[in-house]
Amino acid sequence: MTMRFLRLCLAAAFLSLPLAAWSQDQAFTNRATELKERADAASATLVPLPENTAVKVLARAGAWTRVEAAGRPGFVRVFHLRFPATVEAAGSGSSNPFAAFGSLIGGSKSDAHANLATTGVRGLSKEDVKNANPDAEALKRMQSYRADKPAAERFAREGKLAAVKVADPDAGSTKGSAR
């Protein structure tokens, strides 16, 4: 039996594991947030969640994630969560049951740890747009972060930031011309 055939057999066995095992990740709140009854900011708050609260991810959908926290199911904004993943290659004392598999298909033999986090939101659904409500208070808060030119220049001076000229990538090209 060739090593290539063995690798293919192991890969097939690995990929046939039940997908349910992968659907329930652990995540942590990356800021103080709230566990909501529904995937809606106006929904009732079930319980406040402090920063670094461990939650069990039940389902991911758009901007909200269904989780179990403090023994209760509910929803948390996906941007208020971090999804750590530890990548371990085969090595002595590795607690990862798949580490040996990784080295078998060409992975590294030294331990390497990396925290990975990815988040994706495709945009607003028709229902989100239909149910949208203007939030004047949020707009006021957002506008309070504006900085005028003198304030920005003062911030740059105090931070000892230097101006850097960046060439316009479209300079010299004619609009509408093929590149």
Compact summary:
With 179 residues, the chain is of the alpha+beta class. It has helices at 3-15, 20-23, 99-104, 126-130, 136-143, 149-158; strands at 26-29, 33-36, 45-49, 54-61, 64-69, 72-77, 81-82. A hairpin with a 2-residue loop joins strand 5 (64-69) and strand 6.
Output the keywords:
179 residues; alpha+beta; five-stranded antiparallel beta sheet; two-stranded antiparallel ribbon; extended
Can you walk me through this structure?
Helices cover 26% and strands 20% of the residues. It has helices at 3-15, 20-23, 99-104, 126-130, 136-143, 149-158; strands at 26-29, 33-36, 45-49, 54-61, 64-69, 72-77, 81-82. The N and C termini lie far apart (52 Å).
- State the major sheet: 5 strands, antiparallel
Count of beta strands: 7
Proportion of residues in helical segments? 25-40%
What fraction of the residues are assigned to beta strands by DSSP? 15-25%
Number of helices: 6
Shape: extended
Residue-averaged pLDDT, rounded?
73
String of helices and strands: HHEEEEEEEHHHH
Query: Low-confidence runs (pLDDT<50, min 5 residues)?
Result: 16-23, 86-94, 99-113
